[in-house]
Amino acid sequence: xxxxxxxxxxxxxxxxxxxxxxxxxxxxxxxxxxxxxxxxxxxxxxxxxxxxxxxxxxxxxxxxxxxxxxxxxxxxxxxxxxxxxxxxxxxxxxxxxxxxxxxxxxxxxxxxxxxxxxxxxxxxxxxxxxxxxxxxxxxxxxxxxxxxxxxxxxxxxxxxx
Length: 161
Description:
Elements: E1 9-12, E2 15-18, E3 23-25, E4 33-34, E5 40-48, E6 53-60, E7 65-66, E8 69-71, E9 75-86, E10 89-92, E11 96-99, E12 102-104, E13 107-121, E14 124-127, E15 133-138, H1 140-149
Antiparallel strand pairs: 1-2, 2-3, 4-5, 5-6, 6-13, 7-13, 8-12, 8-14, 9-10, 9-11, 9-13, 14-15
């Protein structure tokens, strides 16, 4: 028999998950994981294997460049700290940026660095000079595996759950 309260929630590092699948995630309690692109680290907050959607906080150090890449679906970005430049336009604290997918230009990170929340509808990969995807396809499962290797995925559903 479950102890009092266990039927309602399960606590893990950085999160509480309720019986119905709802969750409270505290990203600042999770370690930063390097990747999935050079110069980035992330804290994976949610994955949905059925739809392929995933959410995360990303971080890049001051005055670095986030490489050009290819997005297989829309990506919603919300700047939490600092900022970066996208094709000559500055994104800064509390800006929202909707990327419609496809080839994405490199981002020049500002002198404060940047922390931004993303919601990916699909995955990403590198991009070649013709704007076509190349290299590994990074989806919610790949992000989960990166986080798991860094002991930062306990709050997420394991494959098959």
